[in-house]
Amino acid sequence: MYKILIIALIIFCLLLDGVSYAASSFIEHITKIRKSQGYIFKVNYQTEEEWTDGLILKLFCSFSKGAEFSFTSAGLNNIRRGWHETEISIPKVYRERYGYIRDYRVEMYSKGILVSIKSM
């Protein structure tokens, strides 16, 4: 009887912990800008904890010639609560070799856990 109660309590705590991560940060908007140097993706996101550490943004792109690549931002630490913006750049050599970007999505990870996805 006690074993079942302890297992239920552990599962409840794990689920509750996952919910708190999901509510702590999220992607609001993505802007793709094509420049002569390549592409720049501006990502607007919000954090709701007083201080946030361990955020990583991954950009997944599908190019017109069939290639698919992922690009990762630097780790974001010491972020105060509020709205923020970061950029992920893709050099023009990718456009020259693989064509134009047809589809993309950005995933946000907090401490290694996926917390938000935004796509084209």
How would you characterize this protein structure?
By secondary structure, the chain is α+β, with helices and mostly antiparallel strands. The protein has one domain (2-119): Immunoglobulins (Immunoglobulin-like), CATH 2.60.40.10. The protein is built from two helices and seven strands. It has helices at residues 2-24, 92-98; strands spanning 25-35, 38-52, 55-63, 68-72, 79-91, 101-110, 113-119. Strands 4-3-6-7 form a four-stranded antiparallel β-sheet. The chain has a three-stranded antiparallel β-sheet with strand order 1-2-5. β1 (25-35) and β2 form a beta hairpin. The chain is elongated.
Question: Would you kindly provide a brief summary of this structure?
Answer:
The chain is α+β, with helices and mostly antiparallel strands and 120 residues long. It starts with a helix and ends with a strand.
Key traits:
four-stranded antiparallel β-sheet; Immunoglobulin-like; alpha+beta; 25% helix
CATH class: Mainly Beta
Strand content: over 45%
**Into how many domains do the coordinates divide?**
1
Spatial strand arrangement across the major sheet: 4-3-6-7
Strand runs, count: 7
Class from secondary-structure proportions: alpha+beta
